[in-house]
Amino acid sequence: MFVTLFLRETVIVHVNAKMKMKDLNSGFKIADLIVKRLEDRLTDEECQYLEEWKQANEENSILFQKLSMNPEKQYLERESKLEKSNKKANWDKIQAKIKKGKVRKLNMNFLKIAAVLILTIGSTLFFSNLLDNNVSSVINPGKQQAILITSDGERYQLDEEVIIKEGDVFISNKTQELIYQKKSNITKSQLTYNTIIIPKGGEYKLTLMDGTRIWLNSNSKLRFPSEFGSGIRKVELKGEAFFEVAKDSVHPFVVNANKAQVKVLGTSFNVNAYLDLNEIVTTLVEGKVEVSDTLFGNKVKLLPNEQYRFNKSNGKTLKQVVDTEIYTAWKDGRFVFENESLEDIMIRLSRWYNVEVSFLNESVKELRFSGDLTRYDNIDQILELIEVTQKVKFTIKDRALWVEEV
């Protein structure tokens, strides 16, 4: 029975390394059918579907035989690997939970499927979280936290409730979102600026005076007027933010992001402009934007589902159609990777979990993974899923994370 629970939680499937995230449903369906086959619960229709998949190519057939002949061996190998890791205490807790039946069940519903799809070296790993969120870890995920600096230089920690009056402007965060409001309709002739700083391991939302909503990612900074004047609505971003801009055809909204500028009338888009990265990436979800840069004079207009990449070092640009969910999922509490290098994944994890990452082997930086998981799991849970590939090993001490080749 324990092996059956394991199979319901971890099904190894070879898939095309170029598979897109939108095709994952097919992979998960096969995973479910293989488990049902091992439990002798297939219907005639499901049996035919699985048989057609097996016959599609030799790789599928080999994988099916491997799983069908010795599921116990797979379970024992994985248990041995995790027990030998430097996270044995957490694994003991996971085992205890499984023995009590507190595991996530596998079925055809995408939200309940928990499967690890392991590929050969150079291919893509599709993974989702297998473990209970209650497993403890030294390094916890980020949370809602920020520092607000008002025009008079006062600093406020936004993990506590604040109510501020700045001239005619009322600022509060009662709903864990910083909101700017004003009772009068009088427009100020001189702008005063506020700054919100999101540390590593933080995130925060705010609503500006005009109704524009902004989600700020970890290690980001936004400078903005406490209330907009009669001209252009302009803010300055360092880091990453998602914008839902209030429509106003008379007053365009402009985001100055490092060496790039995004100009809109009313739309939703994501800007990734961290100072430590060479590329500035603008991804448009709705509306229309114009992106330009101050270094090389590039200028381009984007339509929904288009993305523009600008390299600050060499001026190279790339405009492409993308799945916007991959680049905006962070604001909804998820990490989504699609054929992304381990180096880039670790950069994102380091900001959110506030850890310093060091690679002991340069070669592992180029290992590529795809996956969709929650941002609010402890870091151990994510690292253990990647370690199951037996291509890479992680070691944590304090807030330092070392990555090495197995």
UniProtKB/TrEMBL annotation:
- Where, by residue number, does the polypeptide cross the bilayer? 110-131
> Which UniProt keywords are present, listed alphabetically?
Membrane, Transmembrane, Transmembrane helix
Renumbered to this chain, the signal peptide range is none
Identify the residues that the record assigns to the Protein FecR C-terminal domain, covering every copy.
Answer: 334-401
The protein's name in its UniProt record: FecR family protein
Single GO MF descriptor: sigma factor antagonist activity
FecR protein domain residues: 196-290
